[in-house]
Automatic annotation (TrEMBL):
Entry's Gene Ontology molecular function annotations: protein serine/threonine phosphatase activity
SUPFAM superfamilies: PP2C-like (SSF81606)
Protein's recorded name: PPM-type phosphatase domain-containing protein
Domain PPM-type phosphatase: 104-431
Classification via InterPro entries: PP2C (IPR015655), PPM-type-like_dom_sf (IPR036457), PPM-type_phosphatase-like_dom (IPR001932)
Organism lineage string: Eukaryota, Metazoa, Ecdysozoa, Arthropoda, Hexapoda
Amino acid sequence: MDDDLEEKVIKQVYTSHIKFISRFAFNIFDKFPKKSSLHCLSKVLLRPEVFLAATVVIFLLCVYYQTEINASNLLKRIYWQSRSSVNTRQLKAEKDSWEKRLTQSAVYAIQGRRNHMEDRFFIEESINSSTNLAIFMVADGHGGDHAADYAKDVLIKNLCNKILETHNLSQNKENKLDIKDCDKSEEKKEEKLPVKIEKSNEVESDIIDKINTKGFSALKQPNEPQMPPPKEQEAKCYIKKDKIDYGRLIADEILLADYKLVEMSRKKMIIAGSTALIAVIDSTRLIVANVGDSRGVMCDHLGHSVPLSFDHRPQAAREHKRIQEAGGFIAFKGVWRVSGILATSRSLGDYPLKPKLVIANPDILEFELSTHRPQFLILASDGLWDTFSNEEAVAFIKSRLHEPHFGAKSLTLESYARGSVDNITVIVVVFKNGKFEFATSK
């Protein structure tokens, strides 16, 4: 009864207030002619039910407005928190980083989510102040940094010296070269180092069993066959019709460096290995040599991505066939691996899997810069390519060439933000009007 009485009182108070407001409003609108549209409209608007509906609408609008403000503030908080999270990740990545910038090239490398930094790089826009020669390298080490350091410190040094010697000799037109001895030594070399490795299970099966069951640590007294030592060629052997045969020159230097590295590693029981991606620019020639799964890509004058190298993966048909013919196998353990261990089928070092299962023979491609007229090159370790395709990397750098590192730093940090768990090294080489301006002395 009390509730009913209370409701009646509230209703009566509300009705009386509405009537009072209506009379007050009618007194205002009575000034309009009775037949006017405003007079008719006022009668409709000042009805109690219309007033109530208007009150409800106004209340809902206020609630909606307040909700919008809260939602907007919430979205802003989420946005800035995400930005803060990204910035925190970037700061963490930049903590263990290495960088270098020259006139037309830059490199940025981070340790990333790995416990150790095993990537190495080398950039030189002018091997010699009087020559139009530039060289760039990315080495992605595994099992330690010994092999990557060797590639950076020894391989590159020897390669630069051989290129300079050959280049200077080719410029000396008065010097008549006798290449007969070179041809003979080349024939002997091909006999000793056949491109196609013959199948042999004499010792390899025992090594593979050890690797498969106990890993590299079991190989304390390896008995694998010795690699035949490659013969060092004279500089004159790489000149044909006053033109340097960079394919042979670079391949010979890589194989020679690998032989010495493997012999040293065997004596010291160092199981480390490394990829090697090397780019040499000689005037309008671009030569790219690749061993392993680091990768290079070119952005040509049309903005298209042009592969500079192809990954050496165990599951690739050519590599799989070669490994099988050598008496080995590949197994899937997260990724395809040689003997279930190594994720790349070619490398420097890795002596327990040499000389048959894993080889150091490089794939070498040559490009004429005047034809492609490139905008830039990207050379990077597989830490980048785990999160970027060739086309994505080219598109990313294309819009960031104005940055201090020509986009190399941004690309590296973006790869880290996308979740790359490996070391990441990115080199960007920039061309002007399709030409590379060498850093020669003035």
